[in-house]
C-alpha cells in the first residue's frame, strides 16, 4: 500500500518493516517531553508484572533524581537504536543490491534489539549499584568530616543509627528496582 502511494518503488518494500521501529524510536524521543518517558513503563511492566504492591514501589522510585535520569537515558538509547535502524535499513535499501538487503535485514533488527536489551540491563544494574553505594559513601564522608561530640549527638536527636536508617530506605528501594530489571 505504501509503495503504491509513493509511486510503486520496490525499495520502499525493503524498509517497510522498519517503519514500525522508526516510529517506536520517534515515540521514545517524544515521550521525553512528558512527565515519564516510554521506557519507564516498559521497565515497570517487566519489573513488576501484575503485582500491585511492586508496581506502587516501582512508581515510588520516580521521586529519586538518579532513577529519573536512568530512565531518560535508557529511553534516549532506545530511540537512537530504533531510529538508527530505520535510517540504516533505508540506506541499505537504496545502496545495496536487493538480495543483500533481504539477507542482512533480519539480522540488523535482531542484532540491534539484542544489543540494546543487553546494554539496558547492564546499565540499569550498574546505575542501581551506584545508587546503593551512595548512602554508604555519604556515611563515610560524614564520619571523616566531622567527629561527633556529645553535643552534636544530642542535637541530632540520636546517634549514627538514625543516619543508617535514613540511608537504608532509599537503598532498599533501589535494590528492588535493580533485581527486577
Characteristic terms for this protein:
181 residues, mainly alpha, 0% strand, elongated, disordered C terminus
Account of the 3D structure:
This protein has helices at 2-5, 10-31, 38-48, 52-60, 65-95, 98-145, 150-156, 160-180. The longest helix has 48 residues, at 98-145. It has 181 residues and is mainly alpha-helical. It has one domain (10-180). It is built from eight helices and no strands.
Short description:
This protein is 85% helix and 0% strand.
User: How many discrete domains?
Assistant: 1
Largest sheet: none
Q: What proportion of the residues is helical, as a percent range?
A: over 70%
Q: Detail the poorly predicted runs.
A: 152-181
Q: Can you give the mean pLDDT?
A: 79
> What is the H-and-E element order?
HHHHHHHH
| Shape annotation | elongated
Beta-strand percent range:
under 5%
The number of helical segments is 8
What is the radius of gyration? 24 Å
First and last CA, distance? 39 Å
How many individual β-strands? 0
- Classify the secondary structure makeup into a structural class: mainly alpha
Topology of helices and strands:
Blueprint: H1 2-5, H2 10-31, H3 38-48, H4 52-60, H5 65-95, H6 98-145, H7 150-156, H8 160-180
Helix pairs in contact: 2-5, 3-4, 3-5, 5-6, 6-8
Amino acid at each position: 500500500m505504501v509503495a503504491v502511494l509513493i509511486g510503486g518503488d520496490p525499495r520502499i518494500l525493503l524498509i517497510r518493516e522498519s517503519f514500525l521501529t522508526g516510529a517506536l524510536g520517534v515515540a521514545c524521543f517524544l515521550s521525553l517531553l512528558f512527565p515519564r518517558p516510554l521506557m519507564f513503563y516498559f521497565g515497570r511492566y517487566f519489573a513488576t508484572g501484575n503485582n500491585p504492591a511492586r508496581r506502587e514501589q516501582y512508581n515510588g522510585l520516580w521521586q529519586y533524581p538518579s532513577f529519573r535520569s536512568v530512565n531518560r537515558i535508557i529511553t534516549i538509547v532506545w530511540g537512537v537504536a530504533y531510529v538508527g535502524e530505520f535510517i540504516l535499513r533505508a540506506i541499505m535499501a537504496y545502496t545495496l543490491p536487493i538480495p543483500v538487503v533481504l539477507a542482512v535485514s533480519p539480522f540488523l533488527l535482531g542484532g540491534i534489539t539484542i544489543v540494546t536489551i543487553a546494554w539496558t540491563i547492564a546499565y540499569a544494574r550498574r546505575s542501581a549499584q551506584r545508587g546503593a553505594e551512595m548512602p554508604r559513601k555519604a556515611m563515610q564522608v560524614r564520619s571523616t568530616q566531622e567527629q561527633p561530640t556529645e553535643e552534636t549527638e544530642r542535637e541530632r536527636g540520636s546517634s549514627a543509627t538514625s543516619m543508617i536508617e535514613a540511608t537504608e530506605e532509599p537503598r532498599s528501594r533501589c535494590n528492588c528496582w535493580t533485581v527486577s530489571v
